């Protein structure tokens, strides 16, 4: 508005006071409201006003101005002397009429140092106008009432118009020093209006006049509203900046919900420079900038999960979980429930905000751009190590995960009919979110790029772009990305926190043990104090994560439903739930991001560990998916993803899950009955080589899960039958490989665990000598204690796995002994059993005595019983009588005395007499076979080197030529090697059994050599006994 000359305030001349104006207007209104009054009636105490005078009184009352010199100073009603002079110069009456209302309002606002400040004055004037509008409703003169109503409406419009101007441009009119910014006053109005009786904090001020905010924002075009909203949204963001879940965020959130419900305000929000901030902050990355600077980022940052770099207040960990170890469980549950309630309130509110914006065609695109910007700028959150200054916090992304899942709910409820709207081409053609650079399920980045290029050329006539994809499609894929960067990353963080907490607790316990044993020192006390503080902080942090994620069952259920849809959609890409899978993996499936499936498995593994989290949730699709893909390397490349599938299935075993429904899950699905055991055994073999630098140790963890699941399935008759059938069909294929790795693992694990037990025994002996132990330096004792605890953990884990492997051999050898008796396997099996027997019944067995063997899963009696049982089971199936010879052939462990000692121990520990009898019979047969072998060796004498296997230096029975190195070896020896390593042992070239070339000529020569040596021996014997050659031939 044009600048006006400043007016004098409160001159000494008399004028009507505000009270007099009010009284006069009331009297006039009363007179006007009684048209039936008699002309002869006595005149009122005041003279009756004309319509102009009535309008003047009302407008001056609204605007609080005077055009006549006042009789006494009144700061509330300034005298506009120059304005009055202008009116007189224009030959106009000194009346505040409609046509002069804007001039009066401008001059009133232009007064220097006026109180209240311009925006507060306008808000109050709007309230006074509303009051006057109510009063004139009693006027009975229709014409006068209409005139006054029109004038008041005109003034209200002016008030609102200038209120928008002042709010958007505070410097338009003079403002007293230290006066609040109009946007701050407006925010106080909004917050006061949004107050709730249940709010913990009092209202920040008085609410605005009725309908003021609605008309201020709603009855104006966008250009008028936009300047007002810029500063208001920034102050609204600041009101929740660094506010935690226990802070006052709910009123600002209600304000935000109210504003986005007004179309122009919603548009102003998404057009705000800080909707997607472009500013750069030194040392701060774009992802973190999106959180701390964007208008919605501050709301998403409100969380129970701590943010160490940008801490929020109040501190949730301190307020809710300090001294958690000493608090009652009911108190902790109360804290969990309180946090869950406030977080659900926040997430519901943010969902409502986004939903309103998405339904508005003017703002939808901007919302999708914002979500894409948050995702793209925080891609670094998917890494192993996240820079907290570059990426947004876990709290923000967990909230965003929860909000996105809420947005997905409508189509999650109808996933069967809605999954067709999810177009895989979005992953490669959309312009918002980058999926192409992510690791694919079974394709390299080059293969993905090549396929996209070929697909684009084939579809050049109908290019797909972002306009082609439905909201369901965009929401689905954005949610998948947000969950990966959000809740799944937070779960991984929680796992690391728990591991670090456990490590610190162990260190704290060890240090306290040293102190209790008299090893106290200033440094030790400092370490104990430091560790106690770390444990307390980590414990609080762990509880905060748990309260917002693990305790929110509704959140977990939504996430499970989302990933169920992900599984259904993924399986559709390969033709649905049916086996066997197509021989060639479709590129649509090969190129989808691996984390889609990896996150699904992680969530299933997580929820399987939470009591009742899966209760009532349909798991059939997940079960079938895991069975289909866990052993298919041509569909899923990552062995660790397949291992997670096994972990999930293992957690669903009835004895683990505690759910009755999981028993029928394994027994009532044809796909499960036909393929589960087969694929588990295949994966047991495939997992030998994961490609990781930790593959040697990783395989034991993975096989541990497979072994537990197989043990459960063996007790299910239908699965046991499938196992037997598979062993028969794959006797020299996958099943033989499985047995080979099972034996390899058993030997390694038992050997390692027994070594650790010896180490433990040594340290136990050191600690038992208290005098010598106490004389050692504290640091040395601490190091030995840590070595003791480390050896305990390793021994416990290795022994547990060894027990599982031996147990599996025990129950399978009873019904499936044939593969164990194959030429390439029988000696390997016999050597393993002999080695175990030597450890458990040999001379050194007493050295394995420790204080608490059960603590390390070391159960020598049970182990010896299982070993004897395996011997007997194999012997029962030995139709060719090859097993005794294989036992006696083991020169490293076998001895007649060993079997005698083992027999005595078996009697002492109470093993089934039938097993002992058969074990003794087998021992006798092995003794006889050993004698025969010695005789045969004596008969053969010196064997030519060309007849000896170059690997084991034993006489070859079935020589074969290796195609690459051209070396001749014995078939059982090389086949045994190929079970573990599919390469030529002499040059590492690729080698399989079908590539072996029989050396027929050498075999004939070996057979001739054996016959010759046997004949020579007979002749020598005949010569010694004096029997003629012919008699010997007859005897033969």
Automatic annotation (TrEMBL):
According to UniProt, the reaction catalysed is: S-ubiquitinyl-[E2 ubiquitin-conjugating enzyme]-L-cysteine + [acceptor protein]-L-lysine = [E2 ubiquitin-conjugating enzyme]-L-cysteine + N(6)-ubiquitinyl-[acceptor protein]-L-lysine
Where is it found, in Gene Ontology cellular component terms?
cytoplasm; nucleus; ubiquitin ligase complex
Region described as Disordered: 1-51, 1015-1036
> From start to end residue, where is composition biased (Low complexity)?
15-40
Give the SUPFAM superfamilies listed for this entry.
RING/U-box
Q: Which GO terms describe its molecular function?
A: ubiquitin-ubiquitin ligase activity
What pathway does the annotation place this protein in?
Protein modification; protein ubiquitination
Protein keywords: Cytoplasm, Nucleus, Transferase, Ubl conjugation pathway
Instruction: Answer yes or no on keyword Cell division.
Output: no
Residues spanning the membrane:
none
What EC class does the entry list? transferase
Entry keyword Nucleus: yes
Q: Entry's Pfam families?
A: U-box (PF04564), Ufd2P_core (PF10408)
Can you supply a Gene Ontology BP term from the record? protein polyubiquitination
- What's this protein's family per the entry? Belongs to the ubiquitin conjugation factor E4 family.
Q: What's the protein called, per UniProt?
A: RING-type E3 ubiquitin transferase
Query: Which lineage is the organism of this entry classified under, starting from the top rank?
Result: Eukaryota, Viridiplantae, Streptophyta, Embryophyta, Tracheophyta
